[in-house]
Amino acid sequence: MSLFQFTSRRLVSQAYCGLKPPSSKKQRICLEMARPNSNMADFREVFAKAKHIAIITGAGVSAESGVPTFRGTGGYWRKWQAQELATPEAFARNSSRVWEFYHYRRELMLSKQPNPAHIAIAECEARLSKQGRSVVVITQNIDELHRKAGTKHLLEIHGSLFKTRCTSCGNVAKNYKSPICPALAGKGAPDPEIEDAKIPVENLPRCEEQGCNGLLRPHVVWFGETLNSDILTEVENELEICDLCLVVGTSSVVYPAAMFAPQVSARGVPVAEFNMQATPATNRFRFHFPGPCGTTLPPALARHKTEIIS
């Protein structure tokens, strides 16, 4: 069994969503490599030979579509940061406030479109599939912009804004209603001066399974919750066979996703990072391309001169 298999299988059983720094300075030093290469021609030569490409994406790729990241300075909805709302405890305390937050995000996403980075990934997947090559997208994003762009092989490790899960019967269902329930119509504006709607729990989104009527929650992974073990197993399998890995628009600080690419790199597979700035993992990768993903990614994934299109 490989080191990657052992480590990731252990993660499958205990992985949870959260922010976590590297465990020690010694560990950071041991895992660092030489300064990464930013030569696009060199990357393109590696890309041309790859048969199984894994692309890991984070909030940065969607930020270029105008999607709020809810991170860092200005990362607030009303008076709260996402970490204060995206928890089981917050939902138990104030389901109305949490649903206002997610209703705002759902309505916002219905107005957003994929940007050139999303489109480049989807077009690359479609093109390479005709050549017997594969592309899988492993995303931390819950906005479905990859799906909207046309990506087919998609693993959404943190769930989706457009799925709900019943807190009573556990049923998971796609839900694109706008508004998701009448009581949330016109609610959820992010202005810090706006008061909570204080919607009675019986008027919040309810399960439509026969005889249930349980309270629905967004089918997303909140801080402190375990990730879906089946999806993590799929991720493990894809990362085990990939011969090229791209990390796009991710800060590399949200675990366990922050461990994926470094583990791939540790077994000698080329990893290319596309991000606005360097991250804690940058020096562990072979390539780093700074700048907006919508600018750097399309030429990186464009048809190579050696590709034969039937």
From TrEMBL:
Cofactor, free-text remark: Binds 1 zinc ion per subunit.
Cofactor(s) it depends on: Zn(2+)
InterPro entries recorded: DHS-like_NAD/FAD-binding_dom (IPR029035), NAD-dep_sirtuin_deacylases (IPR050134), Sirtuin (IPR003000), Sirtuin_cat_small_dom_sf (IPR026591), Sirtuin_class_III (IPR027546), Ssirtuin_cat_dom (IPR026590)
Residues that, per the record, bind substrate: 102, 105
Entry GO MF terms: histone deacetylase activity, NAD-dependent; NAD+ binding; protein-glutaryllysine deglutarylase activity; protein-malonyllysine demalonylase activity; protein-succinyllysine desuccinylase activity; zinc ion binding
EC number: 2.3.1.-
Record: residues binding NAD(+): 58-77, 140-143, 249-251, 275-277, 293
Keyword RNA-binding: no
A matching Pfam family: SIR2
Keywords: Cytoplasm, Metal-binding, Mitochondrion, NAD, Nucleus, Transferase, Transit peptide, Zinc
Membership in a protein family: Belongs to the sirtuin family. Class III subfamily.
Name of protein: NAD-dependent protein deacylase sirtuin-5, mitochondrial
Gene: SIRT5
